[in-house]
């Protein structure tokens, strides 16, 4: 999952830390944790960790939107983040 995600969202061959890549990786982790919480409803410590991930992703999305709205819109569309 992670290598395919990095390859899909990277800007150049050696890119592993651009906002697009970080947002995509965080989204993958958040989606996995969401499935986990459907089974483990009382895992409150894990839920707190997931909220930190969501907050970090939100910060990266805000940064990307302020830097380049086109890149922001492309990431939003590729990850289906807006309903």
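^ structure tokens above, recovered residues below v
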């Amino acid at each position: 999952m992670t290598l395919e995600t990095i390859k899909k969202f990277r800007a150049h061959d050696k890119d592993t830390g651009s906002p697009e890549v970080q947002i995509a990786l965080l989204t993958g982790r958040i989606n996995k944790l969401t499935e986990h919480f459907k089974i483990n409803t009382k895992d409150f410590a894990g839920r707190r960790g997931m909220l930190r991930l969501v907050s970090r992703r939100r910060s990266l999305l805000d940064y990307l939107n302020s830097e380049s709205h086109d890149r922001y819109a492309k990431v939003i569309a590729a990850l289906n983040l807006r309903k």
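Residues 42 and 71 are 37 Å apart (CA to CA).
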